[in-house]
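Review form for a predicted model. The reviewer records the input and the model, then writes brief findings.
Reviewer: anonymous (R2)
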Amino acid sequence: MNKIGINFENVLAIKKELKLTVPETLKRLKALGITSLDVNLDRLTLDSYYNDIVASGFEIGSLFCFFHLDIQNNVQKALSVIDFCASKKIKEIMVLCTFKSYSLSDVQILKQNLRRIVKYAENFGVKIAIENVGKQGYFASEIAPTLDVLKSVKGLGLVFDGGNFTLAGVNAKDAIIKLAPYVSRYHLKDRALRYEQGALLEKTFSGLDSSVVALGEGDSYIKECFLEIKPYYKGVPLVIEFPFTQENIFDAVQKSAIYIQTELLDE
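Model under review:
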C-alpha cells in the first residue's frame, strides 16, 4: 500500500493560506487521503510541532536534514540525528548532502561517511537516503554521480524527485530508468517548463522559465516514473511537494491528491 504524504513546509504554507491551526490543516489534508509527512529536523527539535503531528494521527515518514558530509566532523552530528529518530520511531532520514565539489578526494570521504551512517542506522531499523537536489552545481543534480554514490554505499536509498531533475535540465524518465532500483521514497513534484500564473517562477539551470504545478500538469513524467519504480518497490511512499516558499498551494494539493488516487493508485 502506497502511503500518501506531503512536506510539512507545505503544510505550514497551507495553514497560512487557509488561516487555520496546524491540527486543523492536518485534518483538511487527511480528508484528501494524506496521512504522512516529511519533516525538517529543525521543526521537530526547535519548534513545537511534534505533538500536533502525533495527536493528528499523522506518521512522520521521513525526517530531512542538511549535512556537508565531505567533512568528517559532521558524521557525529548525523549519528545523533539517527538516535533522535530512533527515539521517535521515525524510520527514514533523508540526508541532503550539501557539497558542490565532486573531486575524487571529496567523493571518497562522502562515501566513507555515508557507509558509517548507514551501518549505524541499520542498528535501529532506520533507512538513510539521499535526494537528487535541485541546486546548480551540486553532485546529486546529475544522474551519473548520484548513481555512483548509490552503487558504492550498500543500503543507501534515494528520495527521487523528478521535478528537481527537470529543474536541472535532466529528463526525469532518463533518470528513473537508471535510478529506480534505489528509490525508497518518491517526491511528487511536477515541474512545468513554463511560468504558471500564481506559482513560483524558477529558472532552470539553462535559464528557462519553470513552475511547480499540480500533478499531471507539468513536464516531470510523474506517472511514467512511478511505473518504473513499482517493479522494485510497489509500496513506495508518495510525497506531494511544492517549493517551500510557494504560496496559495491548497488548490493544487487537492488536485494532486485526486491525481494520485485516480492516475497512480487506481490500477
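Findings: Residues 4-264 form a domain with the TIM Barrel fold (CATH 3.20.20.150).
Further findings: The CA atoms of residues 200 and 246 lie 6 Å apart.
Recommendation: see findings above.
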